[in-house]
Amino acid sequence: xxxxxxxxxxxxxxxxxxxxxxxxxxxxxxxxxxxxxxxxxxxxxxxxxxxxxxxxxxxxxxxxxxxxxxxxxxxxxxxxxxxxxxxxxxxxxxxx
Length: 96
Fold this sequence. Notes:
The protein is of the alpha+beta class. Helix content is 69%, strand content 17%. A two-stranded antiparallel ribbon has the order 1-2. A hairpin with a 2-residue loop joins β1 and β2. α1 packs antiparallel against α2. The longest helix has 34 residues, at 57-90.
């Protein structure tokens, strides 16, 4: 029996877990933004440097909407990958 599907499934589960953690943080961020929707600060650490950007209400709403759509896209991609793994496993020859 080939272990390829097992390792693909394990990798996909790790990817979904990381995505789930990011979604939880985004939901928390959106809930906090709803309480005071005037501005939002974006903190980025890149190349050893911390940066802060203050976004207007309109830009914050656009930014948060784009994040949600990105998650939807990633979830759909994970679903496609999961279906592929399942189909490959179903059609895999089992040799004893």
